[in-house]
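## retry 2 of 3
previous attempt timed out at serialization; input unchanged, resubmitting
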Amino acid sequence: MGVTKCMCFGRPLAPGSDRAWSIIYFISSWMTFLVAEACVIAGATKNAYHTKYLSSQTFSCASLRKGIFIAGAVFIVATMVLNVYYYMYFTKSVSSPPAHKANRSGSNIGMAGYA
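## retry succeeded, writing output
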């Protein structure tokens, strides 16, 4: 996100499908990041609550909430994959030359030229 300046600053994206896909991947990657962060924080909170009342000698892996951490890890990997696709489509959209509109001032199809 730092390299692409979060699509807020820098050169504008060229219109087209690459721009649309980069926006979709940008929003999706931030959504999966927020879900991953929520899962990891929730797992850490649950873990802290359950280990708070256990002595250090009886600490075991059973006190961890593995499902929450696994879900967080899955969303972290999904965020990474979405960021790679976002970067690919972003660079395609920035590096492609902008489409120019055809100059139709010389068109005289079925019309008489008026001066």
